[in-house]
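ARCHIVE CARD
Drawer: 12
Card no.: 0347
Subject: one protein chain, sequence and derived structure
Cross-reference: see card 0346
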Amino acid sequence: MTYTTRDFGTTKAGEKVTAYTLKNDNGMSVTVLDYGCTIQSLMVPDKWGKSVDVVLGYNTLAEYENNNGFLGAFIGRVGNRIGGAKFTLNGQEYPLAVNDRGNHLHGGLRGFDKKVYQAKVVGDELVFSGVSPDGEEGYPGTLYMTIRYRLDENNTLHLTYSAFSDKDTLFNPTNHSYFNLSGNGSVLKHELQIFAKQFCVNDENCLPTGELMNTEGSPFDFNNPKMIETDIGEQDAQLRAGNGYDHNFCLSDTSEWKNVARLTSYDTGIRMWCKTTLPGVQFYSANGLTERNGKYGPIVKRHAICLETQVWPDAIHKPNFPSPILRANELYCSQTAYHFELV
């Protein structure tokens, strides 16, 4: 395992940003910025031995600062949506930023994706740490975080999140990488399998209603592998609401460490397995990704997909959902891993 660092520019606020690259002996590498703990590049050898960058991203810091979409970023305090942009905890109401159709999305106006973190390399790990002060973006409690990215010799990228707070708060972090295992072009001909027999029904603003629906017999049934394009154009009320897939899938396996999904590009022969300790995954087919220039040219709608492992969205308002509450002085820890192989 080797690592290198390089300057990646300076933020508008004058903070220096560094890109850290880990590379294993198989030719796989990951580059992560200390700005937003952002996965800027993920190089995987394809069936011809050529390196393919399987995540969307930008070449400059200015593009990360100026563009929306959260490409590759660490998301928090709470990933996904909180209905009405407020919540009540221990009898006190906490108002949050309204930044998504009346709701609160991905931590607010300056979420964790827009912060610069302390960074160090420890063996085969990149270790980032940061503090979110009490009241930041409306959330209670001073939150102390460590985010670890480890690349092993089995071509697996491990993400580990740990945190504790001095007050009861909400915490539901995720990573917002957009994956295209062909490296470029439409992602619709990728084959996808998601290990979930239920998904969260959304309202017209992509906020869960609290109802769960069986995936079987619907366009949301990915229990058997199928091309993403197979049902995405169906005249289905849930697909119309999100202009495609933008839904939480409730993972069928309730064990601590479980398979989430399997994504395959037969163009490159690259297959990715996603595993997690969390109870859900947001499958987002980049329906709202507006056209912009990326590392290798234009990025357009449905150029890639996100598999955001998570506690289910708006869980603070849904008593039947897993809880997003982190109690004071309790240690939060979750893990997600992306394993790459050839088919």
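Annotation on reverse: The chain has two helices and 30 strands. Residues 290 and 334 are 31 Å apart (CA to CA).
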